[in-house]
Specification:
Structural class: alpha/beta
Largest sheet: 10 strands, mixed
Oligomer: single chain
CATH topology: Adenylosuccinate Synthetase, Chain A, domain 1
Strand content: 15-25%
Shape: globular
Number of helices: 11
Number of domains: 1
CATH class: Alpha Beta
Number of strands: 15
Order of helices and strands: EHEEEEHEHHHEHEHEEHEEHEHHEE
Low-confidence stretches: none
Radius of gyration: 19 Å
CATH architecture: 3-Layer(aba) Sandwich
Helix content: 25-40%
Mean pLDDT: 95
Strand order of the largest sheet: 7-6-5-2-8-1-9-13-14-15
CATH superfamily: Adenylosuccinate Synthetase, subunit A, domain 1
């Protein structure tokens, strides 16, 4: 039985897409499943010279033998789903659960016209919040109600549990970050549901006893998009000087920056029950680490930083990202 859940440890934008794509290539999962809210989260995959920005499909699609599933707890925008299916060429490997709620144009319009959501909270405008509201009210359309989606419909919980019971490797990709959780985040500046490992299980219909690893992803510095407190925030000018300035995958908005936050990292490990951590963009903070794929070749400053993180969060750092490519990784899992 092998089921791993991957979640974000800060405010999203931690590099989950990169880590999932690496694991998909390296470990060859039979199933790559996307949990999370829906199209308000974008994951970036850089592979074989091509960049993919994905809002629906798992970043593990690059493993050509893996089934690509979307669980019933995830919101689906049919247009975005079909667009990504075409761009990635996943074909019949892509399946969604019939219980997925459907984001309609009215949800997007409501999201973008709401002064509270748009101006105060900093919503992505993707329609996820209003769609989740309608789901709670038991009025939302489900994927099984949409004729155009019939080719994609399957029983996702059944497929995933059957795979786990047969000893297949299932890789679950969460979205957003721990502190954007509706329950555990910086309320009200959060997303419209929980974003932790427990929620990823619920999104896909996986019981917690069937999960044997929770991998939490932290970027080597902290960023967040939209409103809400960001401890230790630096100015845009300072972020640019350090090379930390970024824009969001979904909206293109500027990301605010701060140094790595050890206290938040410790809390995120606790809430998610994380068993190992992945650190991304070490090369941005320590440029001399760019492209390194061996721990022996890592600079002393880079090693000290990783050790400091491990001492703080009390779990091992098993994966270290040293560049944008899917294979720019130091893999330490054999040492655990």
């Amino acid at each position: 039985m092998t089921c791993h859940i991957l979640v974000g440890g800060f405010f999203g934008d931690e590099g989950k897409g990169k880590i999932v794509s690496y694991l998909a290539i390296k470990d060859k999962p039979s199933v790559c499943a996307r949990a999370g809210v829906g199209t308000n989260a974008g994951h970036t995959v850089v592979y074989k010279g091509k960049t993919y920005k994905l809002r629906q499909i798992s970043s593990g699609f690059i493993q050509e033998n893996a089934n690509i599933l979307i669980g019933p707890g995830v919101l689906v925008n049919p247009e975005i789903l079909k667009k990504e299916a075409e761009e990635t060429g996943v074909g019949e490997r892509l399946k969604i659960d019939g219980q997925c709620a459907i984001i309609e144009e009215k949800h997007i319009e409501e999201d973008r016209s709401s002064s509270f959501l748009k101006e105060r909270i900093g919503s992505t405008g993707s329609g996820c919040g209003p769609c989740n509201v309608e789901r709670v009210m038991r009025k939302v359309k489900l994927a099984k109600d949409i004729p155009d989606l019939r080719q994609y419909i399957t029983d996702v919980p059944l497929e995933i549990n059957n795979a786990i019971d047969r000893g297949k490797y299932v890789l679950v990709e969460g979205t957003q970050g721990t502190f954007l959780s509706l329950y555990h985040g910086t309320y009200p500046f959060v997303t419209s549901k929980d974003t932790t490992a427990s929620q990823a299980c619920a999104d896909l219909g996986i019981g917690p006893t069937k999960v044997d690893e929770v991998i939490i992803v932290f970027k080597s510095y902290t960023t967040r998009v939209g409103a809400g407190h960001l401890p230790g925030e630096i100015s845009e000018e300072e972020a640019k000087r350090r090379g930390w300035f970024e824009t969001a995958t979904v909206t293109g908005r500027k990301r605010r920056s701060a140094p790595f936050n050890f206290e938040l990292a410790k809390r995120a490990v606790m809430i998610n029950g994380a068993t190992q951590a992945a650190i991304t963009k070490l090369d941005v903070v320590y440029p001399e680490c760019s492209g390194i794929r061996s721990i022996e070749k890592l600079s002393e400053e880079g090693r000290i930083f990783i050790k400091k993180i491990e001492e703080a969060i009390k779990i091992p750092v098993s994966l270290i990202g040293t560049g944008p490519g899917a294979l720019d990784i130091i893999d330490l899992r054999e040492e655990l």
